[in-house]
C-alpha cells in the first residue's frame, strides 16, 4: 500500500516531501501540490502530467497476468530474486516498468519485511501492481521524465524487459545498492518469431545495454537463464499478446497462425540476468 512507502516518495513537481492526506485519498506535498489516489490504490506522479506515452494496454496487461501466473517465467522471477538478495539485507526495492507486479511480488516474498515501489507509465499496469503484494505502493510515472523517489533511498532496482534511465536509477539507489536488469538473448522465443510474427531480438541489444549504463554502472555478474516450455495454443496467444508484437498484429491473424502449430508448442525462453553496481 502507498502508506508503506510514502516516506520514499517525493513530489514530481517540486521535489519536496509527500504525505498522505485525509482518509488516504490523496497525496500532499509541503508546497501544496496534491495528487489523487485512484480507487484501485495507485497514484499518478508524472512530472509533466499525463504524457503521450500511455504504456501497455489493459489487454496486454491481462495477457501478461495470465501467462506469468501460469508459472512459465518462474525461473526468471527466481533469478531476479536471487540477484536482488546479493545486496544482503534488502529493505526497499523499486521496479521500473513493473507491468503486473509479478516480479516485484516475487522479490518481496523472498526478502522478508522488504517494501516495494512499482512504477509503470501504464494505468492498466498500475491497477494490477496495486494489488500484487501487500507491502508495495503502485505509482504511475515515466522513468524518462524522472522518478518521484528520494535520492539514495532504495536498496535494489529491477528492470525486467523494461526501459532504463541510468541517471535516474543511480540517483535513487543507495551507495551499496544493486541494479538488476533482465534482457532477452537472441535465442528467446525464436520458434515464434517467424511463425507468429513476433519481433526478433536485436543482435546489438547487449552492446546497447552496456552503452546505456556506461559511466553510471558496472556489471558484477551476468547469468543466462535458458530453458524450454511446452505451451498450448492459449498460452502462446497470451505470450504474443502480452508483448510489443501485439501492437503489430490483429487477434484474428495471431490466432490463425497459432492454431496452425501442433500442440504443445515448444518455445525457448532465454534471458540474461545482469547485476550491476554504481560506479
Describe the structure.
This protein is of the alpha/beta class. The chain has one domain (40-278): Vaccinia Virus protein VP39 (Rossmann fold, 3-Layer(aba) Sandwich). The chain has helices spanning 2-5, 58-69, 74-85, 102-110, 123-130, 166-172, 190-195, 205-213, 233-241, 251-259, and strands spanning 18-20, 26-29, 34-36, 43-44, 92-96, 115-120, 136-140, 154-160, 173-184, 217-231, 265-278. It has an eight-stranded mixed sheet with strand order 4-7-6-5-8-9-11-10, with helices on both faces. Strands 1-2-3 form a three-stranded antiparallel sheet, with no helix packed on it. β8, α6 (166-172) and β9 form a beta-alpha-beta unit. It is globular.
Distance between the termini: 32 Å
Based on the structure, what is the oligomeric state of the protein chains?
single chain
> Can you tell me the overall shape?
globular
Which residue ranges are poorly predicted, with pLDDT under 50 across at least 5 consecutive positions?
A: none
Biggest sheet, spatial arrangement of strands: 4-7-6-5-8-9-11-10
* Number of spatially distinct domains: 1
The SSE string, one letter per element, is: HEEEEHHEHEHEEHEHHEHHE
CATH architecture: 3-Layer(aba) Sandwich
Mean pLDDT, to the nearest integer, reads 92
Helix content: 25-40%
> What is the number of helical segments per DSSP (H or I, 4+ residues)?
10
Give the amount of beta strand, in percent.
25-35%
Amino acid at each position: 500500500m502507498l502508506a508503506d512507502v510514502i516516506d520514499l516518495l517525493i513530489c514530481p513537481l517540486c521535489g519536496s516531501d509527500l504525505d498522505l492526506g485525509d482518509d488516504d485519498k490523496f497525496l500532499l506535498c509541503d508546497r501544496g501540490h496534491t495528487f489523487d489516489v485512484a480507487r484501485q490504490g495507485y497514484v499518478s506522479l508524472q512530472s509533466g502530467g499525463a504524457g503521450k506515452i500511455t504504456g501497455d494496454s489493459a489487454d496486454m496487461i491481462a495477457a501478461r497476468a495470465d501467462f506469468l501466473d501460469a508459472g512459465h517465467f518462474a525461473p526468471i522471477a527466481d533469478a531476479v530474486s536471487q540477484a536482488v538478495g546479493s545486496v544482503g539485507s534488502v529493505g526497499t526495492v523499486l521496479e521500473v516498468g513493473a507491468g503486473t507486479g509479478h516480479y516485484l511480488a516475487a522479490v518481496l516474498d523472498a526478502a522478508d519485511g522488504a517494501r516495494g515501489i512499482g512504477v509503470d507509465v501504464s494505468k492498466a499496469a498500475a491497477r494490477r501492481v496495486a494489488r500484487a503484494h501487500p507491502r508495495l505502493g503502485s505509482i504511475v510515472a515515466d522513468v524518462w521524465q524522472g522518478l518521484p523517489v528520494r535520492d539514495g533511498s532504495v536498496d535494489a532496482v529491477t528492470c525486467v524487459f523494461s526501459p532504463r534511465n541510468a541517471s535516474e536509477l543511480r540517483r535513487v539507489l543507495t551507495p551499496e545498492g544493486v541494479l538488476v536488469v533482465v534482457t532477452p538473448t537472441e535465442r528467446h522465443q525464436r520458434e515464434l518469431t517467424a511463425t507468429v510474427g513476433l519481433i526478433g531480438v536485436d543482435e546489438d541489444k547487449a552492446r546497447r545495454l552496456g552503452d546505456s549504463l556506461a559511466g553510471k554502472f558496472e556489471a558484477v555478474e551476468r547469468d543466462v537463464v535458458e530453458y524450454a516450455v511446452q505451451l498450448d495454443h492459449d498460452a502462446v496467444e497470451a505470450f504474443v499478446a502480452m508483448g510489443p508484437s501485439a501492437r503489430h498484429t490483429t487477434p484474428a491473424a495471431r490466432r490463425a497462425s497459432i492454431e496452425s502449430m501442433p500442440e504443445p508448442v515448444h518455445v525457448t525462453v532465454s534471458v540474461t540476468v545482469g547485476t550491476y553496481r554504481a560506479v
